[in-house]
From TrEMBL:
UniProt organism field: Streptomyces minutiscleroticus
Top-level division of the source organism's lineage: Bacteria
Disordered: annotated span: 1-67
Listed name of the protein: Kanamycin biosynthetic protein
InterPro entries reported in the protein's UniProt record: Antitoxin_Rv0909/MT0933
Composition skew (Basic and acidic residues), residue ranges: 9-23, 31-53
Biased composition (Gly residues): 58-67
Length: 67
């Protein structure tokens, strides 16, 4: 596996061990993208954030993203 894949696996393992902190990071990244794009891609960022949360076994504590 390449360097990027190794880094992604390490990040996923860290997120599994600290899901609350990972959820905060995902929410912050989603919020930043939404703010910078004027919510133009809100549906896509919601889907992406949900996919990331599923990758480490979290639903963000509420099943859907919040804005």
């Amino acid at each position: 596996m390449g360097k990027l894949g190794d880094m992604a696996n390490k990040a996923k393992e860290m997120a599994k061990g600290h899901p609350d902190q990972a959820d905060k990071g995902v929410a912050g990244a989603e919020r930043m993208v939404d703010e910078r794009t004027g919510d133009k891609y809100d549906a896509q960022t919601d889907k992406a954030a949900d996919a990331v949360r599923r990758s480490y076994g979290s639903d963000g504590g509420h099943g859907t993203t919040q804005h």
